[in-house]
Amino acid sequence: MTTNKITESAIEELAIELLEKQGYRYIYAPDIAPDGENPERDSFEDVLLLERLRRAVGRINPSIPANAREDAIKQIQRLNSPELIANNEAFHRMLTEGIKVSYQKDGADRGDIVWLVDFNNPENNEFLVTNQFTVIENNINKRPDVILFVNGLPMVVIELKNPADENATVNSAFRQIQTYKQAIPGLFTYNCFILISNGLEAKAGTLSSEFSRFMASMPSNIKIHVRILTKVTVQLFFIDFLSMTYLKNKYSKHVILYIKNDTIITNA
Which of 114, 135, 155 is the last residue of a domain? Predict the structure, then answer.
């Protein structure tokens, strides 16, 4: 096999295959689009897979009444600051600290916390890999290559380029991500990591990372968002990234909350 036979779609298929081997379930995004065979979105502007999120929140928080769980979901849907980074930071606080809710129990008001991800029992979470997930925002249509959902939340966006095209570099993938952030910011409200690759090289970063801050590997002393990403290693014709092992292993520690002004904010 030679490099000139590699296509972007082949890299995408390989990435999906590898992620399936890590335990992700694959769904072809057009199948669950509003006009798909099994729609899971009311409109193309919707980026949350709400029924999957509701089921996950129910599994993780069984002792909290359904109306309080629904209130927690509405809170993450109401992140509507004009600043994308502000929305993303607010979401990460909810993700890592839980969402405060209140409800009536035995005639009295009770406060509680709703969790979106089960950190104590990682097997209780649902992991999906999708491709060709179309998002339309302000009449602008964009379709990132691969999106990873955890409990119905679009936490990782992956942009892939064809290594046979000399202009298709990781830098061009990064520029494409910047276009997405401007055109469909709603998708990135819930983003934890961005991965860019041309099949020969891969880099990972966060929403606010400049290109120079995207890393080919993660320093060992950095704890990773939602324990999703363990390492990024790319060899010719073999991409090994976004391993679920980090999430599933009981020894995993805490997480980065977000990166602000190129400073890692962590609760570890």
Answer: 114
CATH code assigned at 258 = 3.90.1570
Give the pLDDT confidence of 212-251 residue by residue, as tens digits: 888 775 444 333 333 333 222 222 222 333 444 443 332 2
The residues with which 127 forms a beta bridge, in sequence order, are 150
> Would you say 144 and 158 are in contact if contact means Cβ atoms under 8 Å apart?
yes
d(CA 149, CA 157): 9
Amino acid letter at 188? F
CA gap 53, 234 in Å, rounded:
32
Distance CA 187, CA 45 (A): 9
Alpha helices in the chain (DSSP H): 8-21, 50-60, 66-77, 84-97, 170-183, 185-188, 245-248
- What amino acid is encoded at 265 in this protein? I
The residue range of the domain holding 39 is 3-47+121-266
My answer on whether 27 and 145 are in the same domain is yes
Tell me the β-bridge partners of 142. 135
